[in-house]
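User: Um, what's this?
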Amino acid sequence: ILRFHSSQMLFEMILMKFDSNELFRVETFLGPFVLTLFILLVVFICLSIFLSIINDNFRLAREKVIEDPEVFSYIIKTFFQWIGIKKRPEWEIQEEKDQQMRENYFSTTDTLRLRTNQLVNQINRMYFNQQTTNV
């Protein structure tokens, strides 16, 4: 724990959750100067990283809107259905129910596969237990 004490102190300094009086008592000029320099550098570095991430993702989102114009129509259609202006067609409701039923069938087959594997494992355990007791 002691070897991470310096990095822990640096994180506490970033969050301003440390005892600055101790730093000021040790060195009256150098302590506050280095603390101010550290905080300014860290804030600017973290801020520039944060802004570059946001800027890059904003640019990617803008490019994607041009490639996929049907997203806007989907959002408008969903919004109108949500507020009740436009009702969903019957075939769309039926298609959604069919999709839910298909998912249930797939999960049932997965469950069957898992149960079969459990059964085979149990039979193998019983078989090997009988062989070890007979020897």
Observations:
- The chain is about 85% helix and 0% strand.
- Residues 88-135 form one domain.
